[in-house]
Structures are given as structure tokens and as C-alpha cells.
Amino acid sequence: MRKDRRQAGYHYDYVKRVSDSQNFLTDTKLLQRIVGLADIGKKDEILEIGTGKGHLTEALCKKAGKVCTVEIDSKLMESAKRRLSKVNNVELIQGDFMKYHLPAKGTYQVFANIPFFLTTQIVEKLTQGNNPPEHIWLVMEKGAAKRFMGLPRETIKSLELKVHWEMKIVYHFRREDFHPKPSVDTVLIHFKKKAVPDLNKGEYREFQKFIERGMKYGITGKGGLLTKRQVSAALRQAGLYQDHEDGVTLYIQWLCLFRCYQVQKGRK
Question: pLDDT tens for residues 144-200?
Fold first, then answer.
């Protein structure tokens, strides 16, 4: 009985935290503007994370063939149901998106104004699934978006993402666009799945090890992966500039040096 009460209390606190971290967009013209940035047509299926009161859902339904939207808060879901009562191309699901099963097959896109405290978990779930979306459009905190993009400096996460995804901030919001008004700057970021990833599955696993070790010890430092001469030659041959002791500041440089490392390892 006590365990059940603890679980019920945890679930209540979790739902409340999700609800409290939502900042709603309700202006019709603004919603039309940001949805218009996505190439959504009547043949497209859209997954929305967090229905809220249904304002963004309604804008998506006007463009897409079908919208499937997941909302954990029962009160918000009831409000959305009333707003969308005459919309016939929407599927409303009450539940926790983090437990929701993404489509196992077929193409789809994601467009959502997500709760900020779940940003990392949501991005990982969407980008690492067996059948990820073709496009992901997420309203998120600007700082988080820049970190995913590797700005101002690449991280292990940004380098891993760039193997499979192109990322770009496509819209900057005013804080006054939301209610309640967020305490941070907010943007719309677009993740576009690459038709052909830069590395195959086996190479990707090796690349993960390469960047983890490179980030920890440096590419050419003690216990490094390549010599300084090898780094300079590889970057020069690829037509890439070198502005760091290791010559590694950009994803394309990391990728270039990883390929060089694979060649050198194959010669041993």
C-alpha cells in the first residue's frame, strides 16, 4: 500500500512538473508562421509532443494529413478535446510521451513545443530510435539548441548527432510570445535526417570511441590517436584549415581525422 502511494505521489509530481514547465503558444498568426516554416502537406503524418490546449495542434491539422498528439495532463487534454471537437484528422492520446512507442514503420515528422526540463531525453528518444522521424521541429530553450548544434564548441553529443542529422535554428521567439512568459530565450530548431548518414553503424560506434578519447586526452596529446604531422597532413589534404593545436574545432574536422585514424589503424 505504501509503495502504491509513493508511486502515485511520484506520478502526480512528474505530471505537475511537466505541466508547470510548459509555456504555451496561442497566437494564431504566430502559429501559422512557424508551422509554415515546415514543409508539411496533406500526405504527411505529424507527431506532436504535448497537446497543451490544442492551439498548435489545430494549426498543424490544417496543414497535415494526420496529427497524432500526446498529452500527459488530463485537464489540458479535456481542454484540447473541446477545441478540436470538429477536427477530423487528429488522434488525441493521453499519456506520457517518454513511454509512448514511436511509429515502427513509415515516414513521419515531429513538431512540438516541448517541456524544457525534458529536452535532452526527448531529443535522444527521437534521434536514436529504430525508425526516427524525417524531420523534427522543436520549440526549445536557445542554449539547449546551440549545444545540440555544437555552438560555441562541439561536444560529444553534438558530434554524435551530426553523423545522422543536420540542425538549424529557424525561428527566434520573443518571450512575450508565450504564456506564462519563459525566463530564457526560446527558438525553433529543425533537425533534418540525412538521407545517407556520414558513417555506417560499425563506423559510428568506432567514431563514438574516437571522439570520447579525443575529447578526454586530445587528438595528439599524451595517449593521443594521431601525430601532429598526421593531423596537419589530413586536414591539408581535405582542404580544411587548422586553427587549434590539434586542428579540431568543427565536426567536419573530427570526421576527417577519424577517417585518417581508421586508415592508420588499418596499416598496423
Answer: 999 999 999 999 999 999 999 999 999 999 999 999 999 999 999 999 999 999 999
Distance of alpha carbon 117 from alpha carbon 166, whole angstroms: 23
Q: What is the pLDDT of residues 95-130, one digit of tens each?
A: 999 999 999 999 999 999 999 999 999 999 999 999
Torsion over CA: 261, 265, 267, 268 (sign): positive
Distance CA 74, CA 41 (A): 30
Please check whether residue 162 is in contact with residue 114, taking contact to mean a CB–CB distance below 8 angstroms.
no
Strand, helix or coil for residue 111: strand
> What is this structure's pTM?
0.90
* Residue located via cell numbers 515502427: 104
Alpha carbon 236 to chain centroid distance?
33
Q: Are 141 and 173 in contact (CB under 8 A)?
A: no
Give the C-alpha separation, 24 to 53, whole Å.
8
Number of other CB atoms surrounding residue 145 within 10 Å: 23
Q: Which residues contact residue 114 at a Cβ distance below 8 angstroms, ignoring those fewer than 6 apart? A: 49, 50, 122, 138, 139, 140
Q: What is the dihedral of CA 197, 158, 259, 211, to 10 degrees?
A: -140
- Residue 175 DSSP one-character state: G
The C-alpha cell 478535446 sits at 81
Q: What are phi and psi of 239, to 5 degrees?
A: 75, 25
The one-letter code for the residue type at 244 is H
- Tell me the average pLDDT of the chain: 91
The residue whose grid cell reads 504566430 is 30
Q: Do residues 92 and 67 lie in contact, with contact meaning Cβ atoms separated by under 8 Å?
A: no
Contacting residues for 199 by C-beta, under 8 A, at least 6 apart: 163, 207, 255
